[in-house]
Amino acid sequence: MGLWSSAEFDNHEQVCFFSDEETGLKAIVAIHSTARGPAAGGTRFKAYESEEAALDDALRLSRAMSYKSALAGLPVGGGKSVIMGDPARIKTRPLLHAYGRFIDRIGQTYATGEDVGMSVADIETVNEVTPFVGGTSAGAGDPSVHTAIGIVHGLRAVLKWQFERDDFAGVKVAVQGLGAVGWGVAERIHAEGARLVVSDIRKDQVERAVERFGATVAPIDKIHEAEVDIYAPCALGGVITEATANEVRARAVAGAANNQLATPEAGATLARRGILFAPDYVLNAGGIISGLEATNGMPGRSKVDFPSLEESLAQIHDRLTQIFERAAAEGRPPEVAAEEMARELIGR
Ligand code: NAD
Q1: How much is the pTM?
Q2: Looking at domain 144-285+317-345, does it have CATH number 1.10.340.30?
Q3: CB 269 within 8 A of CB 246
Q4: CB–CB of 16/87 below 8 Å?
Q5: Ligand 1: which atom is nearest the Cα of residue 205?
Q6: If you take atom 20 of ligand 1, which residue's CA is the nearest one?
Q7: Ligand 1 atom at shortest distance from the alpha carbon of 181
Q8: Catalytic (active site) residue 172
Q9: N or C, where is the chain less crowded by C-beta within 10 Å?
Q10: pLDDT tens for each residue of 164-197
Q11: CA pair distance 337, 327, nearest whole angstrom
Q12: What's 14-66+77-138's CATH class?
């Protein structure tokens, strides 16, 4: 199948292929939409199985950024970059500088930040040669803190919609993955009275959660089956397959991990079983929201009025509620309603 007609392509406005022989840089920047403003999206540095896999990832992720920013109500578009190769082997300062010089050429339509395989320090190295970078330590700080706060706002919308309650007291939540975001969520909802079931491949984190939160521990491969009210995947994507969707005992699935639904059928299975799914890219938008202020004042760009960070994070609650309402009215899963709403917002 040709590129323009592939499902992933979805009328991307621009796709750039950059290479620098001297440093071995091979990068793809995909810009899905600038309908709401210049595109923003992180840089993923990863050893891909093939060039096609890298391109697909860039296209898929940049479309997701269009949706995420549009549903967060932000005046920015969606884009994403991938740098191909094993970061542990090929990431060097000259390579990051070569990458930055390419980003500089397209800075009126795209700005980047961190993602898998790129640290804040790496992004600061890119920033030495181009201003079109967000998420440096001079900005809003660790995005995972804002992601966790946004998720708690989203969980409140889930509580209201599915459980008709306003507070976490006695609500049982299974948190899969106690990393930067999962721990932040666990800490916040524990403080409001939630009872936690946890899992992580890191034993030390699990032990800390037992000590600090009195959490119950679930086996790594069984936490999705925990007898809880809400299952919050905060580790990996793809955890909801048709098989696991049939095993979930919670009445809602709502967490931080990107791309939790392995297939559309997995989402349909949850919906059929009356389990509410909170679309991950709506719930976990706090990180990108916190980095966007940095795009204001970038050279040559007009200044836009961003809502305050607190307002934007709180909006996750209202947006999720709108999505649940629309899904219920149309008799469709929330992720389908969310995608439609996002496409309307970007004029597609
Ligand atoms: P992280 O690397 O800090 O934490 C992930 C945690 O999951 C680690 O503690 C890891 O040990 C654990 N883990 C790995 N495999 C596991 C398994 N099989 N079972 C249980 N635990 C396992 O990452 P993070 O920043 O907390 O992000 C978590 C998820 O949220 C990721 O999917 C990420 O893409 C997504 N997300 C993060 C942000 C952000 O701001 N950090 C924003 C949006 C989405």
Answers
A1: 0.92
A2: no
A3: yes
A4: no
A5: 9
A6: 200
A7: 26
A8: no
A9: N
A10: 999 999 999 999 999 999 999 999 999 999 999 9
A11: 5
A12: alpha beta
